[in-house]
Amino acid sequence: MATHTHGLGCRLLRSGVPAPSGRHVLGRVAFLDHHSAPAIHAGVAGVGVHLAKDENDLVTEVWETDSPVTSGMYQDLAYAHDGDYLFCAGQVAGTGSYREPVRHAYRAAFDLIAKLDYPNVLRIWHFINDINRANADGLEIYRDFCLGRAEAVDGLPGRAGDMPAATGIGSLGGGISWYLLASRTGRVRNLENPRQVPAPSYPHRYGPRPPKFARATSFTPDGLDGAGDLFVAGTASILGHRTVHAGDVEKQCDVTFGNMATVIGRENLLANGIDDSRTLKDLRFVKVYVRHEEDVPVVAAKCEEAFSDTAEIAYFTVDICRSDLLVEIEGIAPRA
Questions:
Q1: How many domains does the chain divide into?
Q2: What is the DSSP string of 65-124?
Q3: Is 192 a catalytic residue?
Q4: Alpha-carbon distances of 63 from 8, 9, 72, 81, rounded to whole Å
Q5: Which residue among 61, 140, 192, 328 is the active-site one?
Q6: Structural domain for 298, as ranges
Q7: Residue 206 is part of a domain; what is its CATH number?
Q8: Inter-axis angle of helices 141-154 and 99-116, to 10 degrees?
Q9: What is the pLDDT of residues 280-314, one digit of tens each?
Q10: pTM score, two decimals?
Q11: CB 36 within 8 A of CB 89
């Protein structure tokens, strides 16, 4: 499968499927049965995320570009860029408290973004081991992570209220693995969902600092109109700021689909000054995170009905950012 962002493309490769040739590889994220540190291998920046239970579940996400790529390491970050797009991956080792190392990792990433001049951050992914457990101070690890991220963003000029679509999901090991995409030019618009309270405005009950992300991000390269490519953040069964249908995975799927459809639908895009429209059938690259393995067949059946038969869908059994959430879904709706 290839999702093209006008020069930037994505492929999802299953175990045993050879990597395609003919384009330059900007970054590689391997979803493995173990974790591996960010590194440069044969000139390609990548990271290994512990999301697979065994070898049958291995998936590799490959980001490609039309232009030659320069790669390197910066403060333990693996990165690559081609003059238009930047891929950057990092990892924070498991620790009793993530606040300080997450703040440091975020600051390093945005230092690199400024240094290389890729100011438009399009999308960020985070995979957090033991996401619902308590840290050494008794704070839930996800809330610990959000605290460090918020403090890092506070010190970034122009970023505090303008972060892109993101995913914060569990992993099976390896501390916190994460990666991002950024562009040098083009128009980026971060979108909220009228059915939900913006994550940065969540009340204090969800932690000392709220999550910092948008519900979706629209990226339109220079010279083009409309929404361009829509990156839909990790989305779950939340209305307002509350989880709904706790304990019912089918109903949680339905609310999740409704939230995704709303944020990329015509009414919401027009409200954000974008004359465009997308539906769930336009999503081409979908990752589905399911808390309980026994729920995967039910979730898969509902996803196959909701999404196009041309969509590439990967399923992972991991914890979700709230203990009462059973499923989370993300995707990309590319420009036609």
A1: 1
A2: ESS--EEEEETTEEEEE-SSEEEEEEEE---S--HHHHHHHHHHHHHHHHHHT--EEEEE
A3: no
A4: 7, 6, 16, 11
A5: 328
A6: 3-333
A7: 3.30.1330.40
A8: 40
A9: 999 999 999 999 999 999 999 999 999 999 999 99
A10: 0.96
A11: no
